[in-house]
Give the backbone structure.
Amino acid sequence: MRELRALISDIISSGILDRLRGYPSHSLTGSGDRVLHSLRTAYLAYRLARILGADPRACARAALLHDVGYDASRGLLRAILEHAGSSARIALEFGEDDEVVRAIRDHMFPVSGRPPLGRVSLIIWLVDKVDSIMELLGLTRWLDRAVAELEGA
């Protein structure tokens, strides 16, 4: 967990995720939290990257930033359809490299973006779906405990 924290601590300390506070994510009960979802996807992406031989830094950073452009004040449908592109632009402005930006842009395929190509893009696409389904089913408690210390990075 120490290595993961080192890879993403600048993002967390920048306050860029604060824009997600208060936005629900994928919970049917409405108690989901988009910051927690982003932290969980970063953790899952980091772990999967290490297993599959992908770049753990790129995966963790793309996963953490994948929803940063979500803005429900523009309407729920618009937020869903546009947040991947908005998140990719924010990541680019934050100084992330092309591989990270592409993975963020394509994480909503087939709703938006292109098919995820390359290990980093595939991992971000997959862990976003896995965490979303786990949240819908109320199965994220163990992950929430695992990522609790990341926010204090």
Observations:
- The chain has one domain: 2-9+34-147.
- The first helix runs from residue 2 to 14.
